[in-house]
Design brief:
Elements: H1 2-12, H2 14-17, H3 23-51, H4 55-68, E1 83-85, H5 91-94, E2 104-106, H6 135-142, E3 165-169, H7 178-187, E4 196-203, H8 210-232, H9 238-250, E5 254-260
């Protein structure tokens, strides 16, 4: 595969190919093309945000609906909200108020700053050819992002302080960002703690929306299953790993819920 990619790239860039194959030159070429792609995407996204008059209001409505869904309040009850955004816009951050302990992070950059595309670093950090294209390495090279307040971590002596609820929306839950999910689940000690996972899909309340809702729900359920199976396989206690989803369901800690956008 590596050789096929090199031959394909060299066919597109004959000036480089005229000097013969060179590994360092090939890696540099791929990095250059990746930066071009990120820049082009930034310009495209900026134009989409600027020309879509309803986008900002929709972002605000969606965020507030998710934040307040099931959120407890009242005298003597303290809560804070943190957001880990894989979106490259900063509209939600403009009206975000997570409380004293809340945090907001556009983990892969945002418009007007560096935008990061890349592969998950879980199985690539020891590969000298791939590491420069992982999100992990590129985040480190940029200087990292302060994410220490995104979740309240747990340990065996203090599970009660773990983050109460983790909500997901609009993410494929795929391999490209798996390392983030593994770190979060490890941080809250997902198996032993009381942390609840809520996965949202866009709910269509129109008369002909039921078929769409069912398709969204099925797609999301399959993605959740894959994510939790992969995470369960990393647990030291393999029986716990195989039993993770059943335990979450039994304890009411795994929820799929439609969120109305129209």
């Amino acid at each position: 595969m590596y050789g096929n990619m090199a031959r394909y790239a060299w066919a597109l860039y004959p000036k480089i190919a005229s000097n013969g194959y060179n590994r360092e030159a090939f890696i540099a070429l791929l990095r250059q093309e990746l930066l071009k792609l990120e820049h082009a995407f930034g310009e495209y996204l900026a134009n989409e945000v600027e020309t879509n008059d309803g986008y900002a209001e929709k972002c605000k409505t969606l965020y507030q609906a998710m934040e307040w869904d099931g959120k407890k309040s009242g005298d003597g009850y303290y809560s804070s909200t943190s957001v880990l955004s894989f979106n490259y816009t900063d509209l939600i951050e403009r009206f975000f108020d997570g409380g004293e302990d809340g945090a907001f992070a556009n983990i892969h950059g945002k418009l007007g700053q560096e935008i990061i595309f890349g592969i998950d670093g879980k199985d690539c950090m020891d590969n000298p050819d791939a590491v420069a294209f992982t999100k992990t390495f590129r985040l480190m090279r940029r200087g990292g992002t302060r994410t220490d307040k995104l979740i309240s971590t747990a340990n065996s002596a203090n599970l009660r302080d773990a983050t109460d609820v983790i909500k997901f929306y609009g993410h494929s839950l795929g391999k490209a960002d798996y390392s983030y999910f593994q770190s979060i689940f490890d941080g809250v000690d997902l198996y032993e703690s009381k942390t609840i996972l809520v996965f949202y899909y866009p709910y269509d309340s129109t008369d002909d929306g039921e078929e769409k809702n069912e398709a969204w729900r099925n797609r999301l359920a399959n993605s959740i299953n894959k994510l939790l199976v992969d995470y369960g396989a990393t647990m030291d206690n393999k029986d716990h790993g195989k039993n993770l989803m059943h335990k979450l369901l039994l304890e009411g800690r795994l929820i799929i819920r439609g969120i109305q956008l129209n």
